[in-house]
Design brief:
Belongs to the transpeptidase family. This is Penicillin-binding protein. InterPro entries: Beta-lactam/transpept, Beta-lactam/transpept-like, PASTA_dom, PBP_dimer, PBP_dimer_sf, PCN-bd_Tpept. It comes from Fructilactobacillus myrtifloralis. By secondary structure, the protein is of the alpha+beta class. The chain is 33% helix and 24% strand. The strands form 11 sheets. Strands 4, 5, 6, 7, 13, 23 and 24 form a 7-stranded mixed β-sheet that branches. The protein has a 5-stranded antiparallel β-sheet with strand order 15-14-28-27-26, sandwiched between helices. Strands 3, 10, 11 and 12 form a 4-stranded antiparallel β-sheet that branches. α11 packs across α17 (492-507). The longest helix has 44 residues, at 3-46. The N and C termini lie far apart (119 Å).
Length: 715
């Protein structure tokens, strides 16, 4: 083969090879292109990639959904002061990474660690040394936190820290509950704590006990949702898909608690608790006519603001603890015997010990007082007298009266998780025991309801803690909880006779309730002593194994208030149980009666609206009522308290004029008085501390407008 022919063959093979390679490359490109088309077609049709829904991912990238938290309703006392209200607390963290900068290039990390530690030590419960250690971690960290010292920070503390203008310090807010009075009817008001909603993953306040739990549906409100669209840079853009469902704030619950009486009761309870250290101490004061519980407290108790003491007793011992009431039960036994026609007070019996079969009923004085009348036996708190009365009535009649007084029933929905009463009533000895308060277990609230029949001439009234529920703006009443009569277990004549016998306990020379005499008032009362059972149901022995109590009402002729105090297993030593209980009963009952007496003497405030300021002040001064003018106008537009309110309610009357509003000097004002001002001129008030005003952000005589924010420091 010639050289020329060989070159031609090689050239033909090269061309063929290039054509084959070109075809192969074309096929490869077409396959790849086809795969790409299929890949994107699959995503376009099915909108998924690697198991991720692309439509949802895109939606989340440019569409944002945020929860708009509803404000939990406020719980108020009888005078409109908040007992539990919404607030925000803050958690603090510090950024240490030097790469962290703002959009303008300013540093957003801690630069001066020494200064930062000093500011934190001045405002938080943390030492300078510890703050410095946290800000200087051993290992490189993007950010650090400060443990419990950096949690639950108040708004005022947050502002103080921010005032130092320290870069790198950041705060995260979370909803919280403010209990401004601390340990104040704590188990009745209850506790709401922050939890994470499993659906929204957002923090929310949920009632755990007390009114916070019982009225959860009313208080909690309903969160809103806001949906919006954003561009690549995070800025919101107009969109038809943007929607907003506004939150519905919670309703407000108004209780029957009288703040002055509650505070006095808490103080007296703390004193007795400190003196004799009982295992449980309960007290309840009720308006006999209406069933309103105006003060109630227990020990052990807790501070819902700090949580201190919460681990000692979670339950409300006033409504959830069952106990044998002892001799206060004799009020019902005697009333049943009188009402059923089985009582003659002048009849006599042998006191000391009474045999029922092979069992005995002993008096607290086993030697007895000889042969005495039943009238005297009640004043001496004789168990034997009650056993005879139960036997005279018969168990069927006696049990019928126990049911008529509803002593074993739950009696109101205002209270959280009440307990049903129980009793042993099969054998004759058990039936006799119930007549003097052993072998029957009740709650303090059940006893209180029964006592209303004695105080109200046979009409039994349901105890209540809540007066009304109002809307979120606190302007419209949505629910009312009026007085409710729940029975007439005895006649008016029986009730009147019973109060006379209860007076004998206090005033007869042989009565054992002399410690409960109150100057200026006639008291009807009955003391009680009951043995306490152990976990196995066996009666304990020893000097400190009793539950002491008193049930009393005053004024005896026409009772306005009923009070019941129980003290379980105190360490008395040489001290008297009745004298310790009297420190609570006498002081609080007298204050309540004095308040009632003063109300009857009060004159209503005049209506000074539309009058010239000088004339209005002069008219108020005639009633020895001080006034504070808020504004520069010449005419009074509004007054607070309102016209016809009792003058004694007003340390001062606020007069709003028709001119520019000017802030008065609030120094020395109580929180209640500041709230009165806030309601009159629509102020938003932030409080720091407790007590009376020592400083205010809007200074005296400074101009301000409605809806302004006022920061108040209390001392």
């Amino acid at each position: 083969m010639s050289k020329k022919q060989t070159e031609m063959n090689n050239q033909r093979r090269a061309i063929k090879t290039r054509r084959l390679a070109g075809k192969s490359l074309l096929v490869f490109v077409m396959v790849v292109f086809g795969l790409i088309v299929i890949f994107f077609a699959q995503k376009a049709i099915f909108k998924t990639a690697n198991g991720v829904n692309l439509a949802d991912r895109t939606q989340k990238l440019y569409n944002q959904t945020s929860v708009m938290h509803a404000r939990r309703g406020t719980i108020y006392d009888q005078k409109g002061q908040p007992l539990a209200e919404n607030t925000n607390t803050y958690s603090l963290y510090a950024v240490l990474d030097h790469k962290q900068k703002s959009l303008t290039g300013k540093p957003e990390y801690v630069q001066d660690k020494a200064k930062t530690a000093r500011v934190l030590a001045d405002n938080l419960p943390i030492s300078y040394e510890k703050a410095s250690r946290v800000l200087t971690p051993k290992h490189k960290s993007f950010q650090v936190e400060f443990g419990s010292a950096g949690q639950n920070i108040s708004l005022s503390t947050k502002k103080k820290i921010q005032a130092a203008r320290l870069p790198g310090l950041n705060f995260v807010s979370q909803p919280a509950r403010l209990y401004p009075n601390g340990m104040f009817a704590s188990h009745l008001i209850g506790l709401a704590s922050s939890t994470v909603d499993q659906k929204t993953k957002q923090p929310q306040l949920v009632g755990q006990m007390g009114i916070e739990r019982t009225f959860e549906k009313d208080l909690k409100g309903q969160d809103g949702i806001k949906k919006s669209q954003h561009d690549n840079y995070g800025y919101q853009i107009p969109s038809e898909k943007a929607t907003e469902k506004k939150p519905r704030n919670g309703k407000n619950v108004h209780t029957t608690i009288d703040p002055s009486l509650q505070l006095l009761l808490e103080n007296q309870m703390s004193q007795v608790d400190s003196d004799v250290h009982p295992k449980v101490l309960n007290a309840m004061l009720m308006d006999a006519k209406t069933g309103k519980i105006v003060a109630a407290a227990q020990r052990p108790s807790f501070n819902p603001q700090t949580g201190q003491g919460l681990g000692k007793v979670w339950r409300d011992t006033l409504t959830q603890d069952l106990y044998e009431p002892g001799s206060t039960m004799k009020i019902f036994t005697m009333a049943a015997a009188i009402d059923s026609g089985h009582y003659r007070g002048s009849d006599t019996y042998q006191s000391g010990i009474y045999h029922i079969g092979n069992q005995i009923v002993p008096d607290w004085n086993r030697n007895g007082w000889g042969t005495i009348t039943y009238d005297k036996g009640f004043a001496l708190s004789s168990n034997v007298a009650m056993a005879h009365l139960e036997e005279n009535m018969g168990p069927k009649t006696w049990k019928n009266y126990i049911n008529r007084f509803q002593l074993l029933q739950n009696n109101t929905s205002d209270f959280d998780q009440q307990s049903h009463g129980v009793m042993q009533f099969e054998r004759p000895i058990e039936q006799a025991n119930t007549a003097f308060g052993q072998g029957i277990q009740v709650t303090a609230l059940q006893m209180m309801q029964g006592f209303t029949a004695i105080a109200n001439d046979g009409t039994m009234v349901r105890p209540r803690l809540v007066d009304q529920v109002t809307d979120a703006k606190n302007q419209k009443v949505l629910k009312r909880y009026p007085k409710k009569i729940v029975g007439h277990p005895i006649s008016a004549t029986t009730a009147q006779q019973m109060r006379k016998h209860m007076e004998d306990v206090v005033y007869k020379s042989y009565g054992i309730g002399h410690d409960f005499q109150i100057d200026g008032y006639r008291v009807a009362a009955k003391t009680g002593t009951a043995q306490v059972t152990d976990a196995n149901g066996q009666y304990e022995n020893g000097n400190d194994s009793y539950l002491y109590s008193v049930a009393g009402m005053a004024p005896a002729k026409h009772p306005r208030y009923i009070m019941y105090v129980t003290m379980k297993q105190p360490q008395l030593g040489s001290q008297s149980a009745t004298k310790e209980i009297a420190k609570i009963f006498n002081v609080v009952m007298k204050k309540a009666l004095d308040n009632e007496r003063s109300k009857q003497k009060m004159t209503p405030l005049p209506d000074v609206t539309k009058q010239p300021v000088a004339a209005a002040q002069a008219e108020l001064q005639k009633q020895k009522v001080n006034s504070v003018v808020i504004g520069t106008g010449a005419t009074v537009q509004q007054q607070s308290p309102a016209p016809k309110a009792p003058a004694d309610l007003s340390a001062r009357v606020l007069l709003r004029t028709d001119g520019q509003l000017k802030m008065p000097d609030l120094t020395g004002w109580s929180k209640e008085e500041v709230e009165e001002l806030a309601r009159l001129v629509n102020l938003q008030v932030n409080y720091n501390g407790t007590g009376h005003v020592k400083d205010q952000s809007i200074k005296p005589n400074q101009d301000f407008a409605e809806h302004a924010t006022l920061d108040v420091a209390l001392n």
